[in-house]
């Protein structure tokens, strides 16, 4: 059988060598197709290989009737609609390791460029201006580099910065003081890191949580004269806030490889002399491009030859007969994980999942992976899937335990997820009600009955008259409609829980006011 492979972004020719050696692979490289042309063309192809320029949208995937695999020659898969790929049974593979060095080196080059005004001085010289006074820089030695996101690239940048005799302080939800000490770097919260640093570099993926995490509030915390670097993803830094911070003199310079909208030719940030920029070149080296193209090419060959792939991003590899039995529980298990980690607001150190009733005696490993995915997604985003969830948990030193009991406490089936974080242990149980779908039935031992869907508020409070009324009227003042309300308590006048489902996301202002009520011990807004 011959497979048709479409390469729609510029990939290294040496890198695709493994593919060209396969007799049954027909390779077409077309790197200037418009989205419409691509949608027309994709119908005939079994594999699509891209970098970051091609937008692999739901619409494109839905037209790709023969598509089996999408290969992303790079790390970020934010240009690929993973849900759509999964729904259409298309596996996505990437090359997470191949461009780490290049991205770290580019980051260091950018740090050096802004610290010594190299692009600006070069530009002036090209324009026949010999100006030594204007381009006095600062040394890196003894300056503090704040690294936000200490994954593959963040670690490499931190190591290189230490070589420049910089002090490094990092924030990553998975970083502990012990790990930081081992690496010889400082450890702090996001706020601590940005307020201590002379240079700040971000290396997180672009997620709901990281979008605009470097915003006007963060700039307020920073030292005057700080330098900002983004070689990760446009959108992690709020570009409008950065512009204002540069104009006000708070930020001395910014080095940007990535932007909220790409590509572009005019950008207001580039009108500022303090900004140096490159057009998303972090991974653009001969070495990185060859390695990432080789890595995805090999995975494409493996997959089309029915072998296991090395870097799956979205594949649920489950035997069909097992899948048929456990499929109805998938939504429940992921939602329980997502609910619980939102409730804790912290990263998990241990995850215990127990299955009972009808789930006793059934292969539940795929549900465990799915629950862990729900938990990890909060910090790792869409790169976590059923295939890599346990691997990523292990990499982040999170212990995952699975157990089964025949007793289901009155339910025909029950999944209980318990998470240990640095502040303690929290627990949630859910069941699949015949014909009615998933329900959360216990939260930290309190009984509730809530569909895990939409906008929720979980309130821990003291059981006393008037609290429910207070909550109701406060939400009414914020024009928040309560759809359902569940209340349970430990004992009369003791600790109690209130679980609300509401018609829209609870904004920070209302959340703060609720938390300020004396009778209320904890308020968490959860959006599932
Ligand atoms: N400019 C370019 O050409 C390139 C850009 N990239 C981008 O660099 C980024 C990082 O890549 P890798 O290091 O390979 O990924 P990684 O997955 O190894 O590291 C990301 C780290 O960010 C952390 N993180 C997640 N949420 C966070 C938060 N709210 N605050 C602080 N840290 C948080 C994660 O815990 C993880 O340790 C990605 O967005 C990737 O797409 C990667 C290669 C080239
Ligand atoms: O393909 C490229 O050059 C972009 C690399 C990148 O941003 C990534 O790997 O996430």
Task: Write a concise synopsis of the structure shown.
The chain has 3 domains: 3-97 and 287-304, NAD(P)-binding Rossmann-like Domain (Rossmann fold); 100-277, Rossmann fold (3-Layer(aba) Sandwich), CATH 3.40.50.720; 320-527, 60s Ribosomal Protein L30, Chain: A, CATH 3.30.1330.90. With 528 residues, it is α/β, with parallel strands linked by helices.
- Order of strands in the sheet with most strands: 8-7-6-9-10-11-12
Helicity, as a percent range: 25-40%
CATH first level of the largest domain: which class? Alpha Beta
Number of domains: 3
Kindly report the average pLDDT value. Answer: 93
Number of strands: 22
Question: What does this protein structure show overall?
Answer:
This protein has 3 domains: 3-97 and 287-304, NAD(P)-binding Rossmann-like Domain (Rossmann fold, 3-Layer(aba) Sandwich); 100-277, NAD(P)-binding Rossmann-like Domain (Rossmann fold, 3-Layer(aba) Sandwich); 320-527, D-3-phosphoglycerate dehydrogenase, domain 3 (60s Ribosomal Protein L30, Chain: A). Helix content is 33%, strand content 25%. The chain contains 18 helices and 22 strands. The strands form 4 sheets. A 7-stranded parallel sheet has the order 8-7-6-9-10-11-12, sandwiched between helices. It has a 6-stranded mixed sheet with strand order 14-13-15-16-17-18. β4 (69-72), α4 and β5 (91-94) form a beta-alpha-beta unit. The longest helix has 19 residues, at 286-304. Residues 75-76, 96, 99-100, 103, 148-154, 171-174, 203-206, 209-210, 231-233, 257-258, 280, 282-283, 379-380 line the site of 1,4-dihydronicotinamide adenine dinucleotide (NAI). The site of 1,4-dihydronicotinamide adenine dinucleotide has 33 residues, from α5, α7 and α15. Its EC number is 1.1.1.95. Residues 456-528 form the ACT domain. It is an enzyme of class 1 (oxidoreductase). It holds the Pfam family PGDH_inter.
